[in-house]
Design goal:
heterodimer; A: mainly alpha; ABC transporter involved in vitamin B12 uptake, BtuC; about 0% strand; B: mainly alpha; two-stranded antiparallel ribbon; globular
């Protein structure tokens, strides 16, 4: 039933993205050259990675505001280890980043699952705790490019088959998420829990556990992105990716993932992230002050959510649906 | 904003009232403990002027928190409040550059707040959009406009009389802001706890459909709440701009989270339907005391935020853990 709706929504968004690219191309044709588009994609990779995790969380009617702080904390920890002990192999550092991120995601998930605390409250709290911890362990100092090992910095930029590793990681994550969401019972459970938690319970799905797993996934991706971010920009400090959690939520919302849970697709999250990424990269090119970016993405969010609401409205008067839920 | 499953019948149970009372008394105990700890830790704490200075840490946020409390009780949320403060402050700055006097500046600040609140309210009530998404969008939009207007510049040069709102004292150590905070606390307390409008707010938060069938104009009440929140953001913008004496587009950044924390810490259920103004008042003092006390001990601001974050989770988790132990 939702299949056609979702497809049309993604088609609409893809159309909007093409239009945006065409508009930019009229002012600056070089922007749509394949090499530049690949650069834009690479620049948007962190947003794509986090948006995928956030999508899983939002599908289960939760929200994870701690992803950016999680990213910054894991990034700082692996950067500091790299400086203090250059001998630690890169693979171990990456495993550590993913592990730490997973643990932080699990902490969110446990609080939501076992203590039944609303996710927005949990992640608001852990967001400030994770971010503050960076200051505690670093003392407010920066880890700069010259202190990091060459191999540590090189990996995200290493080019394989014409694309940097950073881009390949994002592509792999998109494919993996698409598989999980469409081909596994866990993916079904995400949709079921968000669509109707009570029915999901009756169908034998543990709602809390499913939400916990969504937070764990989101945390793992944030941890991985933490390493990639710090290594790519070759700097780690307290405020990296500050406010990025809102970009991530915005990408999901623009991608048509319903904040009420149960509706959304991997293609939507990808397109939503790319939409924001193209805007961010296009503004300087067409000589619009980057100060316009915030207002434009805000407008995009409002328009996207209004359009999505309109699409789902036609099925019935909203008051009847509410009454159904309350019963 | 139904982010989690609701258990509505429990809310109407009389014992819950007692539990609520316990919440506020628990919070009061926390406040007293922090006060005592501060007094012991720093010799500079117990000083009327220092304590008066400490109130500036929370009065502006608390003004917005009162309106936010009503909004959250009604089941909605407004994450754009800090951005409204920025936009209102930018508008006042631009007007001050054009030579507008103090009364005009205040009027402009409040009007921008009201207009932003009306915009949020229309999107939520007319188009039926979820408020958490709408206000994440308007948060970027409002602050984005400030950035477009100001870029990396700042407005200054406010008229001398304008400084009173953020720097003036009404009587001895009682600042204008503290007096306004007290008046607003009383006004919002009466509005929520002693009027039919307040009843309607609770009714909507517990069961919007039921409230509608009971003859409450749900959309109108919600719209008024968004207006109020916008207006209070405008008031906070006047006080903050007056206190700082300058406007940058990054003014009050991150305040929306501190304000929501204050409201939740005050015992307002993020799922709507329950909470009190006295709770929010105590929570404001708790957060102000923590920030000020740690500041006297030279603890950096970011470490204070860890304490606030941990406090937010602990204050909600502990009663639940307690209840689980008793059930087991």
């Amino acid at each position: 039933m939702t299949g056609r709706l979702v497809t049309s929504r993604e088609a609409l968004l893809a159309g909007a993205l093409m239009l945006l690219l065409a508009l930019v191309a009229t002012r600056f044709p070089g922007f749509v050259a394949p090499a530049n588009l690949a650069r834009v994609f690479n620049d948007t990779a962190p947003l794509i990675l986090l948006a995928l995790g956030q999508m899983a969380v939002i599908l289960t009617r939760c929200i994870d505001l701690s992803v950016a702080a999680n990213l910054a904390l894991t990034g700082m920890i692996v950067a500091m280890i790299n400086v203090a002990a250059p001998g630690v192999p890169l693979a171990a550092l990456i495993a550590l980043a993913v592990g730490l991120g997973t643990l932080m995601g699990m902490a969110n998930g446990i609080l939501v699952w076992k203590l039944d605390i609303p996710p927005i409250v949990v992640t608001l709290g852990t967001m400030t705790i994770y971010r503050g911890t960076i200051f505690l362990i670093s003392g407010g100092k920066w880890v700069n490019a010259h202190e990091m090992g060459a191999a540590f910095k090189a990996l995200p930029r290493a080019v394989i088959l014409g694309l940097p590793v950073m881009s390949w990681v994002a592509i792999a994550a998109v494919l993996a998420f698409w598989l999980v969401l469409t081909r596994t019972t866990l993916g079904r459970a995400f949709y079921a829990v968000g669509g109707n938690p009570r029915a999901a319970t009756y169908a034998g799905i543990d709602v809390g556990r499913t939400q916990f797993l969504a937070f764990t996934l989101s945390g793992a991706l944030a941890g991985l992105t933490g390493y990639l971010w710090v290594a790519r920009y070759a700097v780690a400090y307290v405020d990296i990716a500050g406010g990025f959690e809102l970009d991530v939520v915005a990408a999901c919302v623009i991608g048509g993932i319903s904040i009420m849970g149960g509706v959304g697709s991997v293609a939507g999250a990808l397109l939503g992230a790319l939409f924001l990424g193209v805007i961010k990269n296009a503004l300087p090119v067409v000589n619009v002050s980057p100060f316009w970016q915030l207002a434009i993405s805000g407008t995009a969010i409002i328009v996207a959510v209004a359009l999505n609401a309109r699409a789902s409205r036609s099925r019935g008067r909203i008051i009847l649906r509410r009454a159904e839920h309350a019963a | 904003m139904s982010l989690a499953e609701r258990h509505i019948p429990d809310r109407l149970h009389p014992p819950l009232r007692r539990a609520l009372l316990r919440w506020e008394s628990l919070l009061l105990l926390v406040a007293a403990a922090i006060f005592a700890a501060n007094a012991m830790a720093s010799p500079y704490f117990l000083n009327a002027w220092n304590l008066s200075d400490a109130t500036f840490n929370f009065t502006e946020k608390a003004m917005v928190a009162f309106a936010m409390a009503l909004l959250i009780i009604a089941g909605e949320i407004d994450l754009s409040v800090a951005a409204i403060i920025a936009l209102a402050s930018t508008a006042m700055g631009a007007a001050a550059q054009a030579g507008v006097g103090t009364p005009g500046l205040v009027a402009i600040g409040l009007a921008v707040g009201l207009a932003c609140g009306a915009f949020n309210g229309l999107l939520v009530t007319r188009l039926g959009l979820p408020s958490i998404v709408v206000t994440i969008g308007t948060m970027s939009l409002f602050r984005g406009i400030s950035y477009i207007v100001l870029g990396d510049q700042a407005y200054g040069g406010y008229p001398a009389g304008f400084a009173f709102f953020g720097q003036g004292y009404v009587f001895w150590v009682i600042s204008f802001e503290l007096a306004l905070f007290a008046v607003l606390a009383l006004a919002f307390g009466v509005l929520l706890h002693a009027t039919t409008f307040g009843r309607a707010v609770y009714a909507i938060g517990n069961n919007a459909t039921g409230a509608l069938f009971a003859g409450i104009r749900v959309a109108r009440v919600k719209f008024v709440l968004f207006l109020l929140t916008g207006l209070m953001s405008g008031v906070a913008a006047v006080c903050l701009t007056s206190r700082l004496g300058s406007t940058r587009p990054s003014i009050a950044v991150g305040w929306e989270l501190e304000i929501v924390t204050m409201v939740v810490l005050g015992g307002v259920s993020i799922l709507g339907g329950s909470g009190t103004i006295p709770g929010v008042v105590i929570a404001a003092f708790v957060m102000g005391l923590v920030t000020f006390g740690l500041g006297l001990l030279n603890v950096p601001g970011i470490v204070m935020s860890i304490v606030i974050g941990a406090l937010l989770i602990a204050v909600i988790a502990l009663p639940r853990l307690w209840a689980m132990r008793r059930r087991a």
